[in-house]
């Protein structure tokens, strides 16, 4: 649905469409000149020349004239001459009462019984050469833009009019029950629902609710879902538009869309306006007036104007979602606009379990399924990923020809989400498999030999599509919110364990540890630059996280000499943990061999199997080093 613009008040948008039209005209003009000059050069020449009657007679006598026409209606003679080069030219002259003319022409062999196909008059020429191309091209442009608009759902050249695609879904069908976890966010939004149910209750007492609320959090945590749930609970129209839809091909469209959106919302109040991915239009405006992203600024300005302009008591609530709050323009966040900020964080253990339950509701599961175990194995997973795990598990069950989903299906899909699909026929040599087995057991053994390490849950040397040749999965018993310094150091030691085992057993090292190295460095670095876990530097932050919800990139802010010192300390910290891991494995060599052989033969072993072998007494261990060939 789209409405026409009211367009009563003067608007920057009109100026923009004028600018657009102006550019369009210039383009056509240039094209016309080119066409006239290059394609039809003759058309640029002057047309019919006028000469005196005497001159005409001279030309006839000289034999230059080839054809003559007596034009009685205009009272003139039109004639064609041909010079020695064979070049033709059309002339005209006045019509005189000259009885000898016919005889004269006849004797010179001039044709005079045909109409001369003469070229148009100057005015006509101007029309055909200049006006007509303009008309044709504007017409073509209109047709093109219309067909383009049809295909793209917006319109490209209908200057200033907006076709904003706005969805008014009276019933989204989503309720708060569909959103698991996120209790704090739900509580904050329930107030808004209550307001939409009964705006009068609030206005009677003189309270105004915030006009806008901003949902911030990492991708896939249910921000869009929550906004829909608000509409579903409040039973009011839900106008939803995504920031990316404002990115249009023609200047001024975004602002027009915003105006349209709010106009419709005002008519339908009480209602909810939801702007998803608001960071696409709400980015900080930069000072540079020139170039820049004019279009985006126009849109943002319009949004700010509209937010100030409407009456908050009417019952229009604006929700917006973003995963890059730090990039938003401050003007958007000031009181009276999006002043309420609702964090939608990654789910905790309880939240993950609840989300798994919500999505597992309609999936047939057998009694082996333990959502709590899956939730524990998926630290850091978002709601969207958890929903995906359930679905992947169901797909796997179908692939295996079963009618219900089992725990094994879900565990496999957790691994798929973490490490990619199994690569069954990957060509890994026996030798490489042996190395990988020692590497993985190295990790697991170092972890098990230290206190304060998460228990080993599973070890596998089945290659994955992500490129991993094997991995060791550790699962915490419960939720961990803090990490102690000791745990962080143990983590580094565990990460080095793979490489240590390779080196101890084969006296050669491989590239297989690259990911471990990366992670170990990151932990060691953060300990010093962000967590104040270095005695010498103490509680000083050298690094700040720049985008909290997307990848958590950091930027370093310290002097060069400090940076060099940090690097030294990182190297020293990792080396110290490497030495610790080396000592641990040296002390447990028989177990390392026994476990590596077992893993090599079984490909995948559980945490229980691992612990069983680990707890064998020394005389029960039979294996010596697996030989490489
Ligand atoms: P966002 O907008 O935060 O990126 P979405 O709202 O689009 O995330 O979530 C994507 C999908 O993930 C949802 O459609 C839903 O299936 C699932 N999901 C995410 N969070 C939750 C949650 N808390 N409860 C239930 N499902 C969730
Ligand atoms: Mg979203
Ligand atoms: Zn490793």
What do you see in this structure?
The protein has 629 residues and is of the alpha/beta class. The chain has 21 helices and 15 strands. The chain has helices at residues 12-39, 53-61, 101-107, 122-152, 183-197, 199-205, 223-234, 253-268, 279-282, 294-309, 330-333, 349-360, 371-376, 383-399, 407-419, 430-449, 485-506, 514-529, 560-587, 589-602, 607-614, and strands spanning 49-50, 65-71, 76-82, 88-94, 167-168, 212-216, 238-242, 271-276, 316-322, 340-343, 456-460, 471-474, 543-545, 554-556, 604-606. It has a six-stranded mixed beta sheet with strand order 5-7-8-9-6-10. A four-stranded mixed beta sheet has the order 1-4-3-2, with helices on one face. Helix 8 (253-268) packs parallel to helix 10 (294-309), helix 14 (383-399) packs across helix 15 and helix 18 crosses helix 19 (560-587). The two termini are 72 Å apart. The chain binds adenosine-5'-diphosphate (ADP), magnesium ion (MG) and zinc ion. Residues 179-182, 219-225, 321, 355, 358, 383-384, 387 line the site of adenosine-5'-diphosphate.
């Amino acid at each position: 649905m789209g409405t026409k613009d009211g367009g009563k008040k003067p608007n920057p948008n009109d100026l923009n469409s004028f600018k657009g039209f102006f550019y369009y005209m210039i383009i056509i003009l240039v094209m016309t000149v080119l066409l006239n000059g290059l394609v039809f050069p003759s058309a640029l020449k002057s047309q019919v020349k006028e000469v005196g009657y005497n001159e005409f007679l001279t030309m006839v006598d000289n034999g230059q004239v080839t054809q003559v026409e007596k034009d009685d209606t205009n009272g003139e003679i039109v004639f064609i001459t041909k010079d020695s080069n064979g070049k033709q030219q059309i002339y005209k002259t006045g019509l005189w009462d000259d009885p000898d003319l016919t005889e004269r022409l006849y004797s010179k062999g001039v044709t005079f019984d045909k109409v001369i196909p003469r070229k148009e008059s100057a005015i006509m020429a101007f029309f055909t050469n200049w006006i007509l191309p303009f008309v044709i091209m504007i017409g073509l442009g209109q047709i093109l833009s219309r067909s383009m608009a049809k295909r793209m759902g917006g319109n490209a050249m209908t200057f200033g009019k907006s076709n904003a695609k706005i969805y008014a879904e009276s019933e989204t069908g989503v309720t708060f029950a569909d959103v698991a976890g996120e209790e704090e966010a739900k509580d904050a939004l329930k107030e808004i629902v209550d307001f939409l149910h009964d705006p009068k209750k609030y206005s009677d007492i003189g309270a105004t609710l915030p006009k806008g609320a901003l949902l911030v959090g990492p991708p896939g945590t249910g921000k869009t879902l929550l906004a829909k749930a608000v509409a579903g609970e409040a039973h009011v129209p839900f106008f939803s538009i995504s920031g990316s839809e404002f990115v249009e091909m023609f200047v001024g469209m975004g602002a027009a869309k915003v105006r349209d959106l709010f106009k419709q919302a005002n008519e339908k109040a009480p209602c909810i306006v939801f702007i998803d991915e608001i960071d696409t239009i709400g980015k900080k405006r930069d000072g540079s007036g020139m170039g820049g992203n004019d279009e985006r600024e126009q849109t943002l300005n319009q949004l700010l104007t509209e937010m100030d302009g409407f009456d908050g008591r009417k019952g229009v609530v604006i929700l917006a979602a973003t995963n890059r709050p730090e990039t938003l323009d401050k003007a958007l966040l000031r009181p009276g606009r999006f002043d309420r900020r609702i964090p939608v964080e990654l789910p905790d253990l309880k939240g993950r379990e609840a989300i798994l339950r919500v999505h597992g509701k309609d999936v047939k599961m057998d009694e082996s399924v333990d959502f709590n175990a899956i939730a524990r194995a998926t630290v850091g997973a978002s709601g969207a990923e958890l929903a995906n795990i359930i679905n992947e598990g169901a797909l796997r069950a179908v692939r295996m020809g079963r009618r219900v989903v089992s725990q094994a299906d879900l565990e496999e899909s957790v691994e798929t989400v973490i490490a990619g699909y199994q690569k069954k026929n990957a060509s890994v040599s026996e030798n490489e498999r042996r190395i990988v087995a020692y590497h993985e057991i190295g990790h697991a053994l170092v972890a098990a030999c230290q206190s304060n390490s998460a228990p080993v849950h599973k070890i596998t040397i089945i290659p994955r599509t992500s490129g991993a040749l094997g991995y060791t999965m550790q699962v915490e018993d419960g939720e961990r919110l803090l990490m102690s310094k000791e745990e962080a150091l143990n983590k580094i030691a565990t990460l080095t364990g793979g490489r240590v085992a390779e080196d101890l057993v084969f006296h050669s090292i491989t590239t297989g540890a690259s990911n471990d190295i990366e992670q170990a460095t990151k932990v060691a670095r953060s300990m010093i630059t962000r967590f104040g876990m270095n005695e010498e530097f103490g509680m000083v932050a050298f690094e700040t996280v720049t985008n909290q919800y997307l990848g958590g990139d950091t930027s370093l802010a310290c002097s060069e000499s400090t940076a060099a010192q940090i690097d030294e300390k990182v190297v020293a910290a990792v080396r110290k943990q490497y030495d610790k891991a080396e000592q641990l494995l040296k002390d447990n060599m028989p177990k390392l061999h026994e476990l590596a052989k077992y893993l090599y033969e079984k490909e995948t072993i559980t945490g229980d199997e691992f612990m069983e072998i680990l707890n064998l007494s020394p005389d029960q261990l039979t294996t010596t080093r697996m030989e490489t060939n």
